Each structure stands twice: as C-alpha cells, then as structure tokens.
Amino acid sequence: MIRGAPVLVTAAVLAMCLTGCGTEPLLPAEATVGLATADDGAVLEVAQAALIARCMTSRGFSYPLDPAALRARLARPSTSTASAPPREPPSSSAPAFTTALYGDPAAGVITVTLPSGDRLQQSRDGCNAEAQHALFGDRQAYLRGRLTADNLGPLVHARVIAQPAFAAAERKVRACLDRAGWAVTNRCDRGPIARLTAEKEQEVRAELAPLLSDLTVREQQAARLARRLLTTARQSRQEDNA
After folding, report:
1. SS3 sequence of 204-224
2. Phi, psi of 224 (to 5 degrees)
3. From CA 106, how far away is CA 104, in angstroms rounded?
4. CA separation, residue 105 to residues 14, 126, 148, 175 (Å)
5. What's the pLDDT tens digit per position in 202-229?
6. Bridge partners, residue 206, by sequence
7. Closest CA to 124 of 141, 139, 137, 112
8. Which of 63, 70, 97, 98 is surrounded by the fewest CB atoms within 10 Å?
C-alpha cells in the first residue's frame, strides 16, 4: 500500500490549478466562511463542488453554486467523508450536460468489485471524475475503499441474520410486539440483536482493515489538500481586494 501517492498526485494537480486556472478564486470568499472549523467531509464536498463547477464552466456549461448553501454545508457535521458534492447546481437533462458532468461510459469505466461480489462502475472521464482525481489522486484505489465503506451494511446484515442467535432474538422481539402492540416498539428488548450487529460489524471492519485504513489516509490527505485549495483561493480574493 503506497500511502504517499495520493499526496504527490493531488499536490501536482493543485499547483497546476492555482497557476493555470487564472486569477479568479475557486469560490467567492463569502462561500467559504466557516472553513477553518468545518470537518473534513464538508470541506471535501465543497472543494469537489467548486472543482466540478470550474470544470463545467470551462466546457461551456452553466453550473452556478449557491454561496449560502456552501456555507451551510461547511457548518453541518458529516456522518462520513463522502465524495458527493452539494446538490445546489440546477439539474439539466441535456445529454451533453450529463456527459460533461459524469462522463461517457464508452470512453472507459472504473469497475469496483465489492466484498459482497457486487460490481459498481464509474466513468473515467467527465468533470466529476476530474474533481475526484484532483482531490484523491488514484481514483481506482479511492473508489475501491469509499464504495466498500459505503456498502458495509449489507455485509453486516448478511452475517447477522445467518446466526442462530438472531433468529431466537427476533422471535422474542416479534412476540413482544404482538403482546404490546407494534406501535409501541420501545417496550421490547432489542439489545441482543443490537449486540450481535455490533459484533458482526466489528468483525467485518477487522477483515477489511487494510482497505479501510488506506481510505482514511487518502481522505485525510485529500481534506488537507482541499483546505489548501480553498484557503489559497480565499487569500487570492482578499489580496485582490486589498
């Protein structure tokens, strides 16, 4: 596992963007209020949205971002460090717009096989792909970790329901609900199922520890890069106004 690679690749992309994207800041200063105290997930989403917007604009498409919505995203804690940008841009059903944003599968796709055996694909080109590459470097490695982390639930659930203890605990809960009424669920003890679920989740995470650890490192590196990118953009605007 080469942990230095994401930093080397994305740092180079950052340097190219700051020197080759013109003097216009990535985002207006009012959109990044709260950046210093925002968590990594929020910073990554805002940075990715800004990179996508710049890419789409360079391709001749309107992709405005709402500064108020970006500020609100920076102020909101994240439950995970996801790679989806805020949903402010106007939707468009035009094929050319969709292709510019999400890429053309005919140009090639990245395929990720999850531990469950399911296969997920994302296009290799398009502005979404360019933004991910700018932040995370090796998209194949990043998506393998991110999509696996986002789909742990089915793995855990399959192991939980395969345990004899689950069937016994579920029968007790159902019997309790039949007696107390299904609208009053807090009277029934779900502790055994919760403990079994926690045990199996810990088991799954232990088995996938190398992959999940690599994902954590990549996202931490990307978040530091995103803060530099947004901070540099904000400083550029402040210097222009000085």
Report:
1. HHHHCHHHHHHHHHHHHHHHH
2. -65, -40
3. 5
4. 26, 10, 21, 51
5. 999 999 999 999 999 999 999 999 998 8
6. none
7. 139
8. 98
CB 24 within 8 A of CB 237: no
Give the three-state DSSP class for 121.
strand
Helix (H, G, I), strand (E, B) or coil at 3: coil
Closest CA to 72 of 107, 33, 15: 33
CB 21 within 8 Å of CB 234: no
- Residues in the chain, pLDDT under 70: 1-25, 79-93, 182-185, 232-242
Residue 45 in tokens: 């989403």
Task: In whole angstroms, give the CA distance from residue 144 to residue 166.
Answer: 30
Question: What residue type is assigned to position 9 of the chain?
Answer: V
